[in-house]
Amino acid sequence: MKRFALATASSLAVLASTSVMAEPQAEVLHWWTSGGEAKSVAVLQEEFAANGGTWTDMPVAGGGGDAAMTALRARVLSGNAPTAVQLKGPAIQEWYEEGVLADISNVAEAEGWDKVLPASIAAHMKCEGTWCAAPVNVHRVDWIWANADVLAANGIEMPTTWDEFNAAAEKLQAAGVIPLAHGGQAWQDATVFETVVLGLGGPEFYKKALVELDPEALTSDTMVKVFDQMRTLRGFVDENFSGRDWNLATAMVMNGEAAFQIMGDWAKGEFLAAGKEPGKDFLCASTPGDGYLYNVDSFAMFDVEGDDKRAGQELLAKLIVAPKFQEVFNLNKGSIPARTDVALDKFDMCAKISAEDMATSSENGSLLPSYAHGMALRGAQAGAITDVVTAHFNSDMSSQEAVQQLADAVANSY
Amino acid sequence: MSEWLENHLPKVVLAPSFIAVLIFVYGFIGWTAWVSLTRSKLLPKYEIKGFVQYERLFDSPRWDTAINNLYIFGALFIVIAMVLGLALAILLDQKIRVEGFIRTIYLYPMALSMIVTGTAWKWILNPGLGIESTVRGWGFENFTFDWLVNPDFAIYTIVMAAVWQSSGFVMALFLAGLRSVDGEIIKAAQVDGIPTWRIYTAIIIPSMAPIFLSAFIVLAHLAIKSFDLVIALTGGGPGYATDLPATYMYAMAFSRGDIGQAAASAMIMMLVVFAIVVPYLYSELRAKND
């Protein structure tokens, strides 16, 4: 009863504030279909319904979003775009250039998004100055996870430089432990690669090389060193790593078969689901070096016809960025809220580190988009880099050759 | 009226499927050819920009790997499957007991989908789970069989799985061919005291030429459009060492939003198919005209 009253009151408030009389409608295309993710979307769905909206769910599973993008393409070409679509990074700009995104600046300005979102994340949500997407969460990519017992047994501290990491890994290898749990899939190779670029080159270099694609940075000596380090890391993974899924690699760290894993904070969900405690059973730290690589999920708003749909779009945008949803959703998903003013009391210690680092790196300009997770570059360019990274990691290609191929591949990708 | 119908009924009945084929096969081949000449990225665009996509394609080391893999995979797969299939068929043709049972066993892999075959072989070939760890478990500590995770050899594991899947089918084709050879000729040869291997090489196999051709055509198109086996067995890895043109095209079209590049690779794949099929069609048509 109380809930009903609350719902009525809040829906009245929405009706009053947007002064649109039509009932809000939203059709939402997303690919959050697995356990924890589906639960997280259900939160949004409930909240939307409680505010008087009608939610049409359009989950398209498969291929890490590939299937959903194919569905989206068909819908847009037939002139019937969904209200909101799970999109991220430069893909938002790409769709904007096709002329199919809506302008939700009035919601963003009324809600003061500019004040609560870190500037570099807010930039992804804007299309030529107008707001066209709403951020849901922030995943940090440059994490290194470790088995606390294995480190203690071998007298190893969490490494803070790549040299320390290499020394620790050699020690572990001598002790018969696999130093680095890794899955040989192209995107996982790319994930490790970008953390090495950030660690060895620093934030400035990362930005030049993997965001601006500066040919000089791509062929620089630093990049050669990065590939050298990748070759070193190749020696620290077990011989059976090819094609392994990331969560199996996480399991290897969990059961002490391996010591470290470099992976985004979705790996934390695996540890927590297995009943492990952060700080006690497993350790989390940023990968060696400064900076913060983010992977922000967001919903892009598509141009739709009809007052009911537009009202639904505005309501959806408002709810997504509102503190309540940001808290509940991210507790479920293992990421942290995109807005910086949400209380973090209920979050675990790794999430708190992540939020703290996000705030400081946002101030000193080292809050950077992850290239491996489609935040920094468009599909064709990111894919071209990944091809070279994974070819180098899985063969005996020399670092000089890799650097040359990298520059060629990027030039050839336009 | 009824006379008109009688004369035109075949055309009327065929017209809908003819039109459907015209639009959905040839129409879309034309559409793909058009798109391959544009700068299409996320959505198709129709402004012709020349052959940039083909230049990009031939500059790409990944496409090089994909095409080379197609040659290696196609040649080995077709030759090995045909030789094995023929050998099995000849052995089965020796009037052995329980032939029907054995034939079913060899034919059975064909009933599996490529995804199942790929997944099973992935486990068999995985160094930590399959053959390598089993043999090491027997005490041969130095035994290595890591083709699946070795970029230089991974493509051969795909050949193995594909041959395993298809050679039974080729055997069935050849067995039917062997049985269709005129028994009188064979008996006459036996009466003349010609050794069995000579009967096979000089009489039976040459008379099966059409079966070889159909087996080749079936296997060749299986090889060129191979996709699911690669996805299930290696996922294109290690790195992109086992990419085939079909997986390349899929990656470009659906993962990278590079539709122009995908269209260009699809056109090249079609040309490879043409290079095989056109001579076949030509020889067929010429035979009829003679």
TrEMBL record, chain B:
<keyword id="KW-0813">Transport</keyword>
<feature type="domain" description="ABC transmembrane type-1">
    <location>
        <begin position="67"/>
        <end position="280"/>
    </location>
</feature>
<keyword id="KW-0812">Transmembrane</keyword>
<keyword id="KW-0472">Membrane</keyword>
<dbReference type="InterPro" id="IPR035906">
    <property type="entry name" value="MetI-like_sf"/>
</dbReference>
<keyword id="KW-1003">Cell membrane</keyword>
<keyword id="KW-1133">Transmembrane helix</keyword>
<dbReference type="InterPro" id="IPR051393">
    <property type="entry name" value="ABC_transporter_permease"/>
</dbReference>
<feature type="transmembrane region" description="Helical">
    <location>
        <begin position="104"/>
        <end position="124"/>
    </location>
</feature>
<dbReference type="GO" id="GO:0005886">
    <property type="term" value="C:plasma membrane"/>
</dbReference>
<feature type="transmembrane region" description="Helical">
    <location>
        <begin position="153"/>
        <end position="178"/>
    </location>
</feature>
<feature type="transmembrane region" description="Helical">
    <location>
        <begin position="199"/>
        <end position="224"/>
    </location>
</feature>
<protein>
    <submittedName>
        <fullName>Carbohydrate ABC transporter membrane protein 1, CUT1 family</fullName>
    </submittedName>
</protein>
<dbReference type="InterPro" id="IPR000515">
    <property type="entry name" value="MetI-like"/>
</dbReference>
<comment type="similarity">
    <text>Belongs to the binding-protein-dependent transport system permease family.</text>
</comment>
<feature type="transmembrane region" description="Helical">
    <location>
        <begin position="12"/>
        <end position="34"/>
    </location>
</feature>
<feature type="transmembrane region" description="Helical">
    <location>
        <begin position="70"/>
        <end position="92"/>
    </location>
</feature>
<dbReference type="GO" id="GO:0055085">
    <property type="term" value="P:transmembrane transport"/>
</dbReference>
<dbReference type="Pfam" id="PF00528">
    <property type="entry name" value="BPD_transp_1"/>
</dbReference>
<feature type="transmembrane region" description="Helical">
    <location>
        <begin position="259"/>
        <end position="282"/>
    </location>
</feature>
